[in-house]
Amino acid sequence: MPFQEETLENKTYIVTGGASGIGRATAVLLSARGANVVVADADVDAGTAAAESIGPHVAFVETALESVDSLTALVSRTVELFGSVDGLANVAAVHRGGSFLDTTVSDWDTVEQINHRAVFFLSQAVAKAIIEQGSQGAIVNVASGAAFRPVPDQSAYSGSKGGVVALTRSLAGELAPHGIRVNLVSPGHTATESVLETLTDEQLGAVADKLLWKRWLTPEEVAESIVFLLSDLSRGMTGATVMVNQGDLMPH
To answer: Are the CB atoms for 111 and 157 separated by under 8 Å?
Structure first.
């Protein structure tokens, strides 16, 4: 088949964490390329505003990622709204920083439920819907550099993202017979709203000075890779890890 220009018309995608940051940038790009998009987020105000501002074929569905019932309801609502589901971007994540020795059961459970368990069971629900439709699809999970190297005071977060890396490879093998591709994007330092609200200009600059490009990535730069992996342009890829991190994990 010859190389074709990307089009996502008549395709429907779910984006978790779609109210802000990389998730919102992904929803914007999917919509701009003709797709129907469901913004899944726990923040009702931000999610509603995002869906309304992005485009007419974008809907917000309030979703509690720690609830498996909420995840299955999200997929059912997506099919109800747009008739089918073709793919999923598991972008949402939470951080609970702190020393490994001081990490509480509550902190661990929150991180694990949202960053890892939700990815498993939402991917399962989407895969079942795609199989029932008799179609093909794509799932893209979002990890972090913290899954590949030590990060101080992020043991719970690193563990959850490491789980997502392994899960991606397992799902790629299990879902291949059903025509569902599963790939991973691992972003580097990205200037999301939460980062810009948390760090001072001095702190942002200190991090940027250590990066190859001497600047933070934008959410849109990460979203481009996520949308590429959701689209048919990446139809030869599954089980792949795409590092969008300015070469940050290259050996020094």
So the answer is: yes
Q: What is the rounded distance in angstroms from the CA atom of residue 104 to the CA atom of residue 63?
A: 25
Rounded Cα gap, residues 42 and 154, in angstroms: 23
123-170 pLDDT, tens digit per residue, is 999 999 999 999 999 999 999 988 898 888 999 999 999 999 999 999
Cβ atoms of 6 and 233 within 8 Å: the answer is: yes
Distance CA 65, CA 96 (A): 16
Evaluate whether 149 touches 204 at the Cβ level (below 8 Å): no
Q: Measured in whole angstroms, how far is the alpha carbon of residue 127 from the centre of its chain?
A: 16
Report the candidate in 206, 218, 226, 216 with the shortest Cα–Cα distance to residue 248. 216
Per the confidence metrics, is the pTM higher than 0.85? yes
In 10 A of CB 4, how many CB atoms? Answer: 8
Determine the pLDDT at residue 161.
96
Residues annotated as catalytic are 157
- Neighbouring CB atoms inside 10 A of 183's CB total 24
Domains defined along the chain, listed by start = 12-190+220-244 (3.40.50.720)
Which phi and psi angles does 100 have, rounded to 5°? -55, -40
Residue 188 has pLDDT above 90, yes or no: no
